[in-house]
Design brief:
homodimer, 199 residues, mainly alpha, Tetracycline Repressor, domain 2, DNA-binding
Chain lengths: 199, 199
DNA sequence: TCTAACTCGTACGTTGATGTACGAGTTCTG
DNA sequence: CAGAACTCGTACATCAACGTACGAGTTAGA
């Protein structure tokens, strides 16, 4: 591997255009998953033809946008301290990531309609892995439950963030309350349930 | 109000066609939210023109399908015993409703793209009300938490069912485990959290 | 400065879905 | 059984988005 994507010797100019296009794509698709190629080009302040000069079709554009969003997410996430008490670490993780999930919800939906299913999973593996490791550590320390499948726990956490974002968009939840609500819910979900006769 | 929908004196024949169309719409849209009017007509074993004879446009067809799905849901739900311990009642409610949510997830998405936002909320009010009342009762009895907004709790429960359905479709969760996983998660979410210093 | 890379408008061909028009055949229902 | 209601195919008009073709102008960079 020489670099991230093997470079076909692009001009600095083109590099800039591509960056603007990807940024515009993220922004547009995050607001409306059905945004047109035209919309995106306009938002990028670029002709549609220029766009097609860099991305052969809409699908690859969507994938590029999603990849970029995930890359940014990775950066943010990797700066979170996941040491110490697993519960506290989870809270910190949620506080930094709920807004990311909120912003790219629509983008994810756009990708779902265009990308093959496996491709999506592959792209999502990294962030999911991060959450999974933390949960696993908490399980080892006895602070998180072990009676439900790991994939479920990860997915449920993700969905709770998603739900909170939806709630905020709908105006039923103030922005400053989102973090509290999400963390409280997730902590309840992950905590070891009180032992008791099978209910 | 004379009846459900004021009747313009339809023939028994037409009534039957409409029923088949609505059923087909539910089935198709539940598999693919972007199903074509054509697809639906074919699935109903009916010409596209017949369909347009009863529904002026796609949007009204989608709405009819959703309304029907919710009506069926109401019927099932209203047969659930919501008396006794609130936790047990919630478990019974979840066991009967998770599959409904699973089946009409795509249908809901279809409606989201076509119906005005307020219309959706109005249609969903009834089932949401049912869950809300049960939660409220549990809160009064001290078995459910009161530290989070009611709308959030309702929405979170709905989303957990949704997540479980997704998990099953993806093959990461066996059908017979869904109910257990959902109920365990929801019970954890709704239970009164152990008192403790603000974490 | 000279050339290759890049920008970008206009125009076109294609595809796929929506909804309309017409009209002939079929089936209720009074 | 007669007429109204219903079915339904074919054909058509529309529309919106995708992706391609061409070509002239502009800019980077050796």
């Amino acid at each position: 591997m020489s670099s991230a994507t093997h470079r076909p010797r692009r001009r600095a100019d083109a590099e800039r255009s591509i960056a603007r296009i990807v940024a515009a794509a993220r922004s547009c698709l995050s607001r409306n998953p059905d945004a047109t190629v035209d919309d995106i080009a306009k938002a990028a302040g670029v002709g549609r033809m220029t766009l097609y000069g860099h991305f052969p079709n809409r699908a690859e554009l969507v994938e590029a946008a999603l990849t970029d969003a995930l890359r940014i997410g990775e950066e943010t996430l990797s700066s979170v301290d996941v040491g110490g008490d697993a519960r506290d670490a989870m809270t910190r993780l949620l506080e930094s990531s709920w807004s990311l999930v909120a912003e790219s919800a629509a983008l994810l939906q756009a990708a779902q309609g265009v990308l093959p299913a496996g491709r999506l999973l592959a792209l999502h593996a990294a962030p999911a892995e991060r959450v999974e490791q933390l949960i696993r550590r908490g399980q080892g320390e006895g602070t998180f439950r072990t009676d439900l499948p790991m994939t479920w726990l990860v997915n449920a956490v993700h969905n709770l963030m998603h739900a909170a974002a939806e709630e905020e968009r709908a105006g039923r939840l103030a922005a400053e309350d989102v973090a509290r609500v999400v963390t409280a819910s997730v902590q309840s979900l992950l905590a070891v349930p009180p032992a008791g006769p099978a209910r």
